[in-house]
Amino acid sequence: MPRYDFRCRSCGDTFELSRPMAQSNDPAVCPQGHPDTVKLLSAVAVTGGAGGGAPQQPAGGGGGCCGGGCCG
Ligand SMILES: [Zn+2]
């Protein structure tokens, strides 16, 4: 089962969940109980020093505020 990284926008914590791919886009709840989380792309783990600095942008056209499931 693939694992997905999430980050909580309420407390800033990051956590990992194992879930079926069919549920990869489902909203996740922070271990602290906060529902306001965003899914991270684990493949883009670039922790470099100087250089680059490309802004994170979601691939494909999103629907604005519903990317993190904030609208319920
Ligand atoms: Zn939280």
Any key phrases for this structure?
single chain; 72 residues; mainly beta
Give the N-terminus to C-terminus distance in angstroms.
25 Å
Which whole number gives the mean pLDDT? 78
Bound molecules: zinc ion
Along the chain, the helix and strand elements come as EEE
Largest sheet: 3 strands, antiparallel
Total count of strands:
3
The largest sheet has its strands arranged as 2-1-3
Rg, nearest Å: 13 Å
- Global outline: globular
The helix fraction, in percent, is: under 10%
Question: Can you count the helices?
Answer: 0
Can you characterise this structure?
With 72 residues, the chain is an all-beta fold. It is 0% helix and 21% strand. It is built from no helices and 3 strands. It has a 3-stranded antiparallel β-sheet with strand order 2-1-3, with no helix packed on it. The two termini are 25 Å apart.
Q: Can you lay out the helices and strands and say which pair or pack?
A:
Blueprint lengths: L2 E6 L5 E5 L18 E4 L32
Antiparallel strand pairs: 1-2, 1-3
The structure holds zinc ion (ZN).
The site of zinc ion has 7 residues, from loops.
How would you concisely characterize the structure shown here?
By secondary structure, this protein is mostly beta strands.
